[in-house]
Amino acid sequence: MQDVIHAQRVFFNSNTTKDIKFRKQQLKKLLSVLKENEQLMYDAIYTDFKKSSFDTFTTELVLVYSDIKEAIKKVDEWASIKTKRTNLLNFPAKSYVIPEPLGVSLVIGAWNYPYQLSFAPAVSAIVAGCTVILKPSEVPVNTSKVMAEMINSNFDSNFFKVVEGGVETTTQLLKEKFDKIFFTGSTTVGKIVYKAAAKHLTPVTLELGGKSPAFITPNANLKIAAKRLVWSKFLNAGQTCIAPDYLLVHKSIKDKFLNLLKNEIESCHFNPDNKNYVQIVNKRNTERLVKLIDKEKVYLGGGYSIEERVIEPTILDNITFDDEIMEEEIFGPILPIIYYDDLNEVIEKIKNLPKPLSCYVFTKSMSTKNKILSEISFGGGCVNEAVMHISNPNFGFGGVGDSGMGSYHGEEGFKAFSHYKSILDKPTWIEPNLKYYPQTPLKLKLIKLFFGLK
Ligand code: NAD
Question: 227 and 115, same structural domain?
Fold first, then answer.
């Protein structure tokens, strides 16, 4: 591992990755390697957790492809030198900012969208001119293997290398010095990564998780809300970092909304044989999820098979913030509903919980929408929709507080792997002596004037 990191550092120092043409070539190559190997990727992910090719394309590959295309199109602009205004004190200098790649980067992926969460950060690293060591999640073994085979047989390891492995491998990697670490995963492991990075003062982007609430207010379009929430919650069997973790439904619409959710779930025919419902990633997670189903509170579903790693879409009714299911991110197809009476009270409650990755508001009321959006701190979200903010390439994507730091996709991804050097470029034909000795009251007065002070 040390050899690979060293070789990447030597390669980075050769300045090859600073050439924009090189970056474009590598991005084009990545796009064609992924396209050529699509079927292998579909087969691997289906073997790992029965994710269909439709879902794999629409929730993973299409996002990576569009990130690559955007990066190729915009890299000249993103990497260009940006002119800044020069202040009076420094007149007649030129001021500009030079984006530079941070250097050798480590990307650590999570398992729930294994391709997207490994390749999208790698695209950001490549477009910014970094070299990449990618450590995909070891949990879905086949997707990890297919990524290693695809990348390691097509790319120079001095530039882009996939290292497979679990906790032990990641722990070893984290001992080394990188110029950037990009981590996607749980808040608990995020803290381990942050601590390891601090030793080398390595900048990090942490894409973490949390409990994302969805508010449903009495005047919302309830039919649409039920449709959009059911899709976004049970997509990938709830194993989505930005899935609505729980619903906050106003008491007055309780029965009507429950009924709409039930009809919507039934009309989806969620069924692994239909290829529209993926498995839980492993037995350990299936057991963890099953323990969260409080039988007394099941409104719908609740059935499961540990052996098959399947849990029915499940709605838990009359949940309170004190229930066990509200302690941690669910990350599975269980949807708890908390009924609220007073919006202020529930907002106050959420403000005192760890900051969520997402928040969703279903309402027709402008003031309710503004209140929730302005009062609660969260990574990103939607109004009258859920999850889909990830699909807008013009947004940066990331968390805040416990749900992470930094963001990526598009130009935000470029920035995450770049440093911006500020340069004051001064001519020599004039040499004002304001800063030089002797220090006089007149000079002080002039300096204050230049800064707009008295
Ligand atoms: P995880 O934290 O268990 O694992 C993530 C990565 O860290 C894996 O590559 C794993 O090998 C490594 N790892 C695990 N334990 C480690 C340790 N002790 N030391 C060093 N490395 C270690 O997360 P996961 O189970 O793969 O993913 C689920 C979590 O990720 C959820 O919390 C979810 O919300 C979050 N997530 C966040 C985003 C986002 O973009 N913000 C996206 C997907 C998932």
Answer: no
